[in-house]
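Retro notes (design track)

What went well: tokenization of the new backbones is finally stable.
What didn't: we kept losing track of which sequence belonged to which structure.
Fix going forward: every design gets posted as structure first, then sequence, in one message. First example under the new rule, 489 residues:
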């Protein structure tokens, strides 16, 4: 008999859904743009079985992949579990076997040495496959049309089994997938590696290097010439696992770094440069990066203090919700300088924000348009509460050339999930297209996939695909074209 704990991560807005199924021709309000032909894939953590520990992290749930197939003004919906090795072992046993979030010391002895990955953080179509990713395990491949699981990949034996980032980038010039691994040689190792995967799914090259300290390495950026990592002290250790503390804790006594590595076969760690931020800070998801010669620009939300209450300060200091607010910021460093100091730091907006997105055709290039979710504490909230809701409550578009920002608020009962940009056509100017985002009503318990004019988000949705359920809070997702889906078929 399933019995989920009455704790923060499993009640209210985070009550597990555990629903697999299909809905053909979802009910639509408004008009879905007729030219859209493709799929929006996204993923959320959703425990197959009740957790072993009542205080387990929301992030430890099994990956549940949703697909919204859009064509001819219609939307079809499909949702399936990513059947990782963990999912299969627990499905056969009929119960949870893996313990606390990323803590192998708490697992049932029967699964010792098995990959613990949940594939619950991001999904992206590349080389005819749906890559389902969680940064503590290899990349899981799925069919992007059926959502059938195909299994972990080692890219034809060319990439040793190792953790695979949940935030790869596609270089629009080459079509290569740019990715990295941390703790690449096993749990609690400082080893990292950068690698690129061709448009046909082949490993092209790999560059190993060592990190400054043992920490979360969640996101990164690429430019035309470089790969760039924000390294912040959201740290872990074997001692934390032995004490069954939260896997990560924020250490305000350590510096924050930026590492820049040339993106070319034959480069080595010695070709990279470390730059030290002027002060300790929390660095969030990356919006974009680009370089002008040796000068590297890196855009991401930054907070003065820890932004993750679920990964508390290592000293036990209470969470500071104001200090934890992040603001889109541009860092600049010069690879030709003889100093580890930053060239400049510029805050790009006065709105507290996270989950930044761009027109992905401009990844690694100078760009103008961005979209993000906004923390607006002035807005009322009438829902049951939970992380990511009530405060992350608005969608914004920012024009970086003018600084103009437009926002939309879905109302006091609602939260909004990460947006995704869709170009109007392959050759449309930057930012000309649509944005999709799930809007969740936490009172009526329904979700709607909302479609916006990308540069007029303040005018509200032009169409809503209305689901008869509320989809659990997700993390990340991406759009794929009909041509990309056709590669798999």
């Amino acid at each position: 008999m399933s019995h989920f704990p009455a704790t923060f991560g499993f009640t209210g807005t985070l009550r597990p859904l555990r629903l697999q199924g299909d809905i053909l021709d979802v009910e639509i309000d408004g008009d879905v743009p007729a030219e859209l032909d493709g799929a929006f894939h996204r993923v959320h953590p959703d425990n197959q079985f009740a957790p072993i520990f009542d205080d387990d992290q929301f992030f430890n749930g099994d990956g549940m992949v949703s697909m919204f197939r859009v064509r001819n003004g219609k939307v079809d919906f499909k949702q399936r579990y990513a059947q990782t090795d963990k999912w299969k072992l627990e499905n056969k046993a009929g119960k949870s076997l893996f313990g606390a979030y990323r803590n192998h010391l708490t697992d049932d002895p029967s699964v010792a040495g098995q990959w613990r990955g949940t594939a619950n953080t991001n999904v992206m179509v590349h080389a005819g496959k749906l890559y389902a990713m969680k940064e503590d395990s290899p990349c899981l491949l799925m069919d992007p049309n059926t959502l059938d699981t195909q299994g972990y990949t080692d890219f034809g034996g060319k990439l040793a089994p190792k953790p695979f980032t949940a935030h790869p980038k596609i270089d629009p010039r080459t079509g290569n997938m740019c990715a990295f691994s941390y703790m690449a040689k096993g749990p609690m190792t400082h080893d990292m590696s950068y690698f690129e995967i061709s448009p046909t799914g082949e490993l092209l090259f790999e560059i190993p290097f060592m990190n400054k300290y043992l920490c979360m390495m969640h996101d990164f950026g690429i430019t035309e010439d470089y790969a760039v990592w924000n390294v912040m002290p959201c740290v872990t250790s074997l001692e934390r696992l032995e004490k069954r503390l939260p896997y990560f804790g924020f250490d305000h006594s350590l510096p924050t770094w930026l590492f820049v590595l040339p993106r070319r076969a034959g480069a080595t760690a010695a070709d990279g440069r470390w730059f030290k931020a002027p002060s300790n800070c929390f660095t969030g998801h990356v919006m974009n990066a680009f370089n002008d010669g040796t000068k590297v620009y890196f855009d991401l939300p930054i907070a003065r203090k820890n932004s993750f209450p679920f990964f508390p300060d290592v000293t036990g200091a209470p969470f500071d919700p104001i200090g934890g607010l992040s603001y889109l910021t541009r860092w600049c460093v010069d690879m030709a300088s003889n100093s580890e100091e930053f060239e400049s730091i510029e805050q790009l907006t006065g709105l507290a924000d996270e989950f930044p997105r761009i027109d992905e055709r401009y990844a690694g290039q100078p760009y103008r348009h961005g979209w993000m979710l906004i923390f607006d504490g002035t807005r009322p909230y009438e829902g049951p509460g939970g992380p990511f809701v009530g405060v992350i409550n608005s969608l914004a578009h920012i024009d970086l050339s003018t600084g103009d920002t437009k926002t939309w608020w879905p109302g006091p009962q609602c939260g909004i999930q990460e947006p995704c940009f869709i170009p109007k056509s392959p050759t449309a100017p930057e930012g000309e297209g649509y944005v999709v985002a799930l809007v969740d009503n936490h009172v009526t318990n329904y979700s709607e996939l909302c479609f916006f004019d990308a540069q007029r988000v303040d005018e509200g949705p032009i169409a809503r695909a209305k689901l008869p359920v509320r989809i659990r809070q997700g993390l990340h997702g991406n759009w794929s074209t009909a041509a990309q889906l056709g590669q798999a078929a």
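Added context from the reviewer: The chain has a mean pLDDT of 95.
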